[in-house]
Amino acid sequence: MFSIIALIAAVPILLAAAAAIKLTSRGPVLFRQERVGLNGTTFQVLKLRTMVQDAEKNTGPVLSSGRDDERVTPVGRILRATRIDEIPQFVNVLLGHMSVVGPRPERPCFVEEYRKRIPYYDLRHRVRPGITGLAQVNGYYLTCVYVKLKYDLMYLRNISLWLDLKILLKTAIVVLRSKGS
Hints:
Blueprint: H1 2-24, E1 30-36, E2 42-48, H2 74-81, H3 89-94, E3 99-101, H4 108-117, E4 130-132, H5 134-137, H6 145-158, H7 161-177
Parallel strand pairs: 3-4
Antiparallel strand pairs: 1-2
């Protein structure tokens, strides 16, 4: 229900963002990418496109793009800073691929690598991935996998409605300040 309300409320923002994306760069408005979810199953995550089309054509998969990544469009920088690019993931929540709160979903190529070298990494797949999570609200959106995993495991050990509500409140604060995670 929350996802439906969030999507309806976000329609004007999504329309403005879609127009800005189309007016300033070539390519589709939506970006789809395979991610690993609950119990290791894969799904297509939806986001507003924030990078140039075919951004990984010359580089192959890149773990995460920092603030100075020249593949990110000017509109994309704004969408990322305000987290507006994540709004389409409420569709993933409605489809049962994701939850609003949980560990962020990762790409299969990176999950495969992390499974080999990081003990307990797969524990994070015991819950649905989230649009926001404990690592993100603590400023660890673009940081090393070990730090994010620490927060993901902390979330799993303490999972509760109360913790989810705290994370949602912190997410709102981060988004309103347009910084941090």
